[in-house]
Amino acid sequence: MATNAIPSVPVVDATASVNEIVAALKVAGGVIIRNAVSQEALDQVEIDVRPGLENDTAWSGSFFPAQTRRTTAALQKSPTYAREIVMHPLFQGVSNQMLTEKHWFWAGDQKQWAVSRPQLSNTIVFSIGPGATAQPLHRDDSIHQRVSKAVDVYPEGREGSLRDSSIGFFVAGKKATKANGATRFIPRSHLWDHDAPPNEDLCEFAEMERGDAFLMMASCFHGGSANTTADEERLIFSTFMTKGYLRQEENIYLAVDLDVMKKYPVEIQKVAGYSLSEPFLGWVDSADPRKLLDKEIPTNTDMWTGIEEPKDIIAV
Ligand SMILES: O=C(O)CCC(=O)C(=O)O
Ligand SMILES: [Fe+2]
Question: Is residue 160 part of a domain?
């Protein structure tokens, strides 16, 4: 594994294309997007989530410092978070390109195509206060039991689409600096072997202005850093998308009330997990699970038609 010539964190503007960001992610494993989310949207999200942060208590284990407060289930608390962060076009575009899978299988003498589109995995707001110690460097893909093999370059085609389970999108709700504990990560560690241990010396800091975002493959080593300031809160809106056939990290079906989910547009309902991973994964009453939100969804009929190859789906 080549560890020389490590690129520092690639930085793009919010006008960058999905293809540009995917290309940078394949090389470095993480990309900063400047001005990803508007200041007005962040103002509203902060109003929506602040009560949840204020009600949280200190973590008593070792994964989070005692000075960190969290609040989850953003779809329950903030339609603005759902619209402006979860559904951010670059986050969704990159996730669709890197996490969608398709395959075909025999049904008698016919080839049938099935597509599994990504879904939301979790939403967590982190408020990390002064005095917080550094989180251990870790890979978030261990929640899905991932054990990676070392590669020099991110594989193309189906092998590439199988490599990563999830992608994270960390939006800065306040300025994130090295001093106040910005997320540090090891560029290119998404290409490493499972056995290779993290090394603090190789870390880069995702320093961000309010509204910037850090997009990261879940196989990258990273962690929140120490907040050594006297009075600065680091506020991060953290969201992950995962593959359509893996279990969501946050149990969104239980965390978000059906009545709240019903009010969202269909595209947000589908991303939240109310959709089938083709051919048959996730049904309710033998039908697309959106039947719980929309009585018009039919039952007792094929849930998908897999006759044509979906050519629009680009494997990474
Ligand atoms: O605090 C951060 O910036 C990252 C948090 C994190 O990586 C985690 O909780 O898994
Ligand atoms: Fe993490």
Answer: yes
CB of 207 shorter than 6 A to ligand 1:
no
Number of domains in the chain: 1
**Domain assignment of residue 1, yes or no:** no
Query: What residue has token string 């509204």?
Result: 211
- For every residue of 181-196, DSSP letters joined together read T--EE-TTGGGS-TTS
Query: What is the Å distance from ligand 2's center to 139 Cα?
Result: 6
Listed in order, strand segments (DSSP E) in the chain are 11-13, 30-34, 68-72, 101-107, 110-116, 119-128, 166-172, 184-185, 204-205, 213-217, 222-223, 234-242
- Ligand 1 atom at minimal distance to the Cα of residue 206: 3
For residue 199, being part of any structural domain is answered with yes
Please report whether residue 311 resides in a domain. no
pLDDT along the chain (316 residues), means of 10: 60 97 97 98 98 92 87 98 98 97 93 96 97 96 96 93 96 98 97 98 97 98 97 98 98 98 98 96 94 90 85 76
